Amino acid sequence: MSLLKFIRLLFYVIFFTVIAAVSATVSYRVLSYGEETKVPNLVGRTLADAKAIVQSRNLHIKVDGSEYHNEIPVGFVSGQKIVSGTDVKEGQIIGIILSKGPKSALTPDFIGRPLDDARFLVVERGLEMRRVSRTHHKSVPAGIVITQNPLPGSRGASVISLLVSLGPDKVYVDVPLLVGLEHEKAAQQAKKLGLVLRYTGFGNSVVSQSPKSGSRIPKGEVVEVRLGEVEN
Q: Which of 187, 183, 222, 189 is CA-nearest to residue 203?
């Protein structure tokens, strides 16, 4: 056999040996990936725990929806699309359902609660906050729920809208002319308008004021007045 033929033969042997080895490796990986495993029970697990469990078995997870559940807390797995114990190929996707917690039979009473408390209760009951509107109210303090929709005690509600107080709306008044008045009459004038006088100095009459007369200020604001004696 000539040297050239020997070299060619050796080349073909090495080439086909490499091809066979690569094919065997790929076939092994494909067959290994297709090995069967049992679907684990994911119900009652957190989403993070469920992911870790299926990954340990070369499976995958997909959230396919959510549902109300009287016993399983919010965010935990409440159901799975493939029953636990079922034999499946590795790489299979397992669909799961997450719990929204118990669905309250009666809508809670949010009226009179601070908005932060109301938000917490909405989440705790597995409800959804649709809208928070705000308006002034003469008697309900700022940040407190005035009313709600649906009303407390309604059945089957899943979304809530709240109307929250901004507190009393400010009423503005014109500052009267107090200079020249005796302090008692000045106090009477201020009281009628809902203003508060703060005195400095000594005497029976108002000799100066701040803000000046004609200024427009909210009810309840302070007007500084200085007392003295008015010369006749």
A: 183
